[in-house]
Design a protein that fits this description.
With 132 residues, the chain is α+β, with helices and mostly antiparallel strands. The protein has one helix at 2-38, and strands at 47-48, 51-57, 60-62, 65-68, 73-78, 87-88, 104-108, 113-118, 126-131. The chain is 28% helix and 31% strand. The strands form 2 sheets. Strands 1, 2, 3, 5 and 7 form a 5-stranded mixed β-sheet that branches. The protein has a 4-stranded mixed β-sheet with strand order 4-9-8-6, with no helix packed on it. A hairpin with a 2-residue loop joins β1 and β2. The structure holds copper (II) ion.
Length: 132
């Protein structure tokens, strides 16, 4: 009788140890998969040869504000895992489709002014282009 209880107790402990081992052994694998999404070595370039680059990362436009000259272009690239869009607050000028990860949208600004925009899917995501 006592031997049986001892054997069950030992089996129970072994199951716990194996379970804990599997849990911790698979955990680092998950963070390795997530790392490339977080890392980004793209420099914070504002305007290169007449194009102002804006990245969409972690649910935000980066940089949020950019300044360009009339005739120059703003170029957005979605590097986020969810889809986003670029829509003018005014309802005119900027109107991208829903951009999945890796997709871009470009718009050339001909008139000076301040252009506020947002993401249609996430109204709290806001950005601004100042055209001088
Ligand atoms: Cu969005």
């Amino acid at each position: 009788m006592k031997n049986k209880q001892l054997i069950f107790a030992i089996i129970g402990i072994i199951i716990l140890i194996v379970g804990a081992f599997i849990y911790f052994a698979t955990k680092p694998g998950r963070s390795v998969v997530e790392e490339p999404v977080v890392s980004s070595d793209v420099p914070e370039v504002k305007v290169v040869e007449g194009v102002g680059y804006i990245k969409i990362v972690n649910g935000a436009f980066k940089p949020t504000d950019i300044k360009i000259k009339a005739g120059q272009t703003a170029f957005w690239t979605n590097e986020d895992s969810v889809a986003h869009s670029i829509i003018s607050d005014s309802g005119t000028e900027l109107s991208s489709s829903s951009l999945d990860k890796g997709f871009s949208y470009a718009h050339a600004f001909t008139a000076k002014g301040t252009y506020n925009y947002h993401c249609q899917q996430h109204p709290d995501m806001k950005g601004r282009i100042v055209v001088e």
